[in-house]
Input
Amino acid sequence: MNNENHNEHSSHPTNSAYLKIAAILAVITALEVAIFYVEGIPDLVFFAILIVMSVVKFAIVAMYYMHLKFDEAIFTWFFGGGLLLACCVIIALMALFDQL
Amino acid sequence: MEHKEEHTTTTGIDNRKMMIWVFLGSECMFFGSLIATYLIYFGRSLSGPGLEILDIPTTSVSTFVLLMSSFMMVMAYSSIAKGDVKKFRVWIMCTAILGATFLGFQYYEFTEFAHHYHLTPQTNLFGTTFFTLTGFHGAHVTVGVIWLITLFGYSFYRKEDLIRDDALNVDFLALYWHFVDVVWIVIFTVVYLIGVRAAGVG
Output
């Protein structure tokens, strides 16, 4: 058990990789805020860019910091299932209230 | 040395780890409902202040602080996985400080809204949905900070447990903390950046 867990930990990213990931997250956040202040971008393009950036940040944290990329696939199913249901709830409620 | 009970399931995975992931999945649905409610009532306030009072520069800084706290947390986990309790203590205390800083920003934002703009949860639909969504997130951060400080103290009391249990206790906290971070990533984008732009007040 301990050996298995040791191998599990050794497959996780190194500290320098964690630092690089933090830098990437910081840069994406800075870009998000910078784009917010750029004038002349059509609303739909602006929304699309921000949603994509947000999804990328979410995925990076989930995969590397929460180790979903390296851990058992069943954890991804648990988390992804909840996430999918949440998205469905948001879309269904917005459709019900004519907000889509 | 006291005997530590194994918590494996038929899948061979620790049942406590299964539990924390199921919990986080349910938390996705919880925050999904709150975000849905916020979006449904978006722009439907009949009176009172709205999204024009949101302070993007200040919230950007607090977002950065929470993002960096996730980095500190993963370093704390990495340290304890290697059995380095001293580094673990430093990183986990840094995480707690950044978490508390984020809460300080939120306290400033809430009091600013209440005192300068007279916006409370009772004022209008924006106030109700905004304070409910961000307030529940703040409550989660508060629980996380208390958990961080508790584990920091525990490392002095029973540091062998933290290492022998193969950092599982720290892993649970780390997963919770990163989840709180990803929820804020969504809130910051939807409520602040997209919200202000959609309302045409940015």
Summary: The mean pLDDT of chain B is 90. The domain at 61-196 of chain B is CATH 1.20.120.80 (Four Helix Bundle (Hemerythrin (Met), subunit A)).
